[in-house]
Amino acid sequence: MAFCIYINLSLKDNYFYKRFTENPNSRIIAHNNGESKYTSSKTPWHFVYLEEMPSKREALIRERGLKKYSHLQINQLINSPKNELLKIDSRKGSEKI
């Protein structure tokens, strides 16, 4: 079972929402369906960062640290090699149809 740190970007007001989850796909759907009281007013949401962690404890520690990041630090993280979404996007771009 993987634990993931994710950052969502609100396309409404450019707010970054940082959390951990065991199922990133269901979380983004829940956010965009308004199932989270806090995030329902800021839809639509877009995944911008995903990082897999080896344990729940490490994921919670990482989440706590990310909440202190500035906008600049978050943008740097989004473009860093740690972002699993960049790896997914690069694999899609290299596939031949």
Brief descriptors of the model:
alpha+beta; 3 strands; 4 helices; 3-stranded antiparallel β-sheet; 97 residues; single chain
List the helices and strands and how they pair.
Layout: E1 3-10, E2 16-21, H1 24-32, E3 45-53, H2 56-66, H3 71-78, H4 84-94
Antiparallel strand pairs: 1-2, 1-3
Structure notes:
There is one protein chain. By secondary structure, the chain is an alpha+beta fold. 40% of the residues lie in helices and 24% in strands. The longest helix has 11 residues, at 56-66.
| Number of helical regions | 4
**Low-confidence segments:** none
Q: Nearest-angstrom radius of gyration?
A: 14 Å
Mean pLDDT: 89
Q: Portion of residues in helices?
A: 40-55%
Please tell me what the overall shape is.
globular
User: Structural class of the helices, strands and pairings?
Assistant: alpha+beta
Order of helices and strands: EEHEHHH
Report the sheet-strand fraction: 15-25%
- Quick one: how many beta strands? 3
Query: How are the strands of the biggest sheet laid out side by side?
Result: 2-1-3
Largest sheet: 3 strands, antiparallel
For the record, give the distance between the C-alpha atoms at the N and C termini, rounded to a whole number.
32 Å
